[in-house]
Predict the 3D structure of the following.
Amino acid sequence: MAASIENGVVAGEQPDRTGEPGDLARVLVVDDDVNNLLAITNVLEGVAQIVVAKSGEEALRHLLKGDFAVILLDVYMPGMDGYETAQLIRGREQTKRIPIIFLSAVNKEIEHLIRGYSMGAVDYVFKPVEPLVIQSKVAVFVDLYLMNREIQRKAAKEQALLDEMLTANAERLRAEQALRLSEQRQAAIIHSLPILFYVEPIGAAPRVPEFVGGDFAGLTGFSSDELKRSPTLWQERLHPDDRERVLAAVANRAHGLSIALEYRWQCADGRYKHFLDQSVLLRDADGRNLEYAGTLSDVTERKDLETQLLHVRKMDAIGKLTGGIAHDFNNLLAAVIGGLGLIERRVPLDKAQGKILAMTQHAAGQGAELVARLLAFARKQKLEPAAIEIAKLSATVSDLLSHTLGGLVEIGWDIAPDVGAPYVDEAQLELALMNLAINARDAMPGGGTITIKARGAETEANGELGLAAGRYVVLTVSDTGHGIAPEMLDRVLEPFFTTKDVGKGTGLGLSMVYGFASQSGGAMRIESDIGVGTRIELWLPRAPMDLPASGASATASPQTVSERLRLLLVDDHDGVRETTAALLDDLGHRTTSAADGKSILDCLTAAPEDVDLLISDYAMPHLSGSEVIRRAREIRPGLPAIIITGYAEGSTVDIGAADIIALSKPFTPLQLQDAIGRAMAAAAAK
């Protein structure tokens, strides 16, 4: 088949000498005679792909672009001859191993042949070229070239396979190491968690789980071997109150049901823990039952927190209810005490009648004290905190209790040297300690010792007692009495609950102490053992180091007003309003009263300069007492004012301004007169 030369490459049908299409060996033919190029191309076109060059320079350019199996190089060419071209080819690292066959029509002498071989030739062919000879020579080099290339290709493939195998082995090794590490980490985590994994055969009686993961001994105190040796151990140590329910639920699994149970289980040390037991039924591919798989988790801490939360919510709810009752009761007591005061002032009584009146007033006073205790539990009493010196507190409380405890009970103090000063209301703290000491005395009818310890402590936020992080003073009152039963510990703080006999206690002592500690920013904790005694801790906030300790608070002399005042009185409670108005009249004042804020504001608007003082209840419908006073002062700026409340909770009653005097129900005529004096003095000082 004829061939043509285009751009130095001979086009034509090429044989497949490698077994891979498009991967043929190439032969470079260099000759300045086009006819020679065509002749050689036609001879070799069945051997390889032929690339032609008409000069040494063109041949070098082809060599820069690719590799060749053999080079046919004419010796004599204008410009750069074959010897120079061969020398340059042999000088390049990339081309020095390509075989060169010199073509020559002259100079067949031995010296020319030697020169050609010295230039790197592997053979010498003389023109005219014998086709069979040139084909044979070129075919040998082409085959060698293709064989060498195939060897290199196979070596490369084998190396690639080897590299892939090494990479795969390395990745498999890393995966195995990572898997082992993950398994070890998972086992360590499971071992450290309060959770066990188990499997259990179907229909086992009694139930004997086989624990396959977790720290069984650490969680229960028993070893797995002990459980296997004693098949009834799990069932026997269920809490009696939970046993029937749990066994029934386990039996229901025979019907294909899974379980999720919470129950109490007695550990080796005798303590009960709360466990969450969850299991499911495993089946094979054909739906046949295999076994149960489950987890056993220790949820004791969560149950304790839930119990504490329920207790806090219960106490809070009772506190809100108690505070509301106390408010309403204060209104009733205000009317009763005010009415008794009016009778005492207006009605002449003989000795017997006076005694009855005094007894009634004393009973009303006891009712007021009872309300104060209710408010203390509800954390709504008015507190005046200060730094309290423990040494002086111990002396005061000991004096107060000296005639109360009796000769069979001794009291002792144990005060740490660095205890610090609690920052609380001194009078309420004294009352709290007295209540605790009296309760301790009642728990020791045959006599005993009451010990009051004082120490410093620090706590982190959200600890066991739910206190804010900081420094505290801990007062512990301990007795050697009969103790409190465990089932009653959660109830002794409820108001009106008492362990004493009927008629020997109101059930407000501990509840008052609890409310006082909580309102002061502290907490209260009770520990008791039957037959050993009870320990009650009061955690109270510690005063800053630079805050001086206070002494006994001095009682200010009551202030009085000699002149007759024109007063406005507003209270929605009819009994309180009428008795208060009557008391004011008896004190020599002229009073105009109303049942709502709008009516009293209308009176003030009609004659603003004819009013000297405004007295208003705090909690009223439509307009509160503070709002009535605010609007009244818009009508009459600087008007002296008193606000009265049955909540006795100065910290939450919004009185509106600092110069408004707060008066708590129930109040006596003397307290009412003092409030009027202080209100007028505050207005005069502005």
Observations:
- The radius of gyration is 54 Å.
- The chain has 18 helices and 24 strands.
